[in-house]
Amino acid sequence: MSTKIAVLCSGGGTNLQALIDAVEAGTIDGEIVRVIANASKAFALERARRHGIPALFISKKQAGCDAAFNDQILEELQKAGAQLVVLAGYLPLVGAQIVRAYEHRIINIHPALIPAFCGPGMYGHHVHEAVLRYGAKVSGATTHFVDEQVDHGGIILQKSVPVLEGDTPDTLAARVLTVEHEILPESVRLFCAGKLGVDGRRVHVL
Ligand code: GRF
After folding, report:
1. Nearest CA to ligand 1 atom 7
2. I need a labelling partner for 181 at 20 to 30 A (CA). Which of 86, 100, 159, 172 fits?
């Protein structure tokens, strides 16, 4: 029985596209049953629609507050029968009610090597600007389970890239994005195959 996957997005959805491609190629034993975006113009919604995946915009503004916004998302996840939630370029903090309902069943992708360059405010270009400002020689991407703190749950996979002379936030972001598109589908593949074991903070690939 393949795993029902819901994907939360905020932007262009290239990570979502990598997941869609891996599912359609049969690499991931799963089915993307819902895509939810917190931005009405997120191209991720269009990507989902082009692949016949139910996609919807949920507005934090219309919901009125974080709790109601996350309640709406949780209701949609449960209606879709989601067994795994993937945060693919999703910016808001996931509400505690969702984290509790999906303990060790929410996977996030972060464009740096956690625990470096992560935490509140560290998203998108802010991450790559901080890496360059610090003078780091390597960066990369991390997938991890989501808990109630930002970028804090057990690390699943990481892959590094070099920081090159002359890099700009754009050139570094593009290099990191290529490894994001590798490790996120691989992390989801492992989860769907039942090959991720959790032991406290440590995640073992079985
Ligand atoms: C990317 O910078 C990625 O690092 C982060 O969100 C941004 C947009 O990703 N996770 P996507 O193209 O919307 O998947």
Report:
1. 89
2. 100
Give the tokens for residue 180: 């994001």
Confidence of residue 1 (pLDDT cuts 50, 70, 90): confident
Ligand 1 pocket by Cβ (under 6 Å): 9, 11-16, 44, 88-89, 109, 111, 124, 173, 177, 180
pLDDT tens for each residue of 70-125 = 999 999 999 999 999 999 999 999 999 999 999 999 999 999 999 999 999 999 99
Q: Taking the CB of residue 199, how many other CB atoms lie within 10 A of it?
A: 8
**Could you identify the atom of ligand 1 that is nearest to the CA of residue 111?**
4
Name the residue with the closest Cα to ligand 1, atom 4: 111
Residue with CA at minimum distance from ligand 1 atom 5: 89
Give the 3-state secondary structure of residue 36: strand
Put simply, whether the predicted model's pTM sits higher than 0.85 gets the answer yes
Q: How many angstroms separate the alpha carbon of residue 89 from the centre of ligand 1?
A: 4
Is the bond leading into 162 cis (omega within 30 degrees of zero)? Answer: no
Q: State pLDDT tens for residues 119-151.
A: 999 999 999 999 999 999 999 999 999 999 999
> Would you call 51 a catalytic residue per the annotation?
no
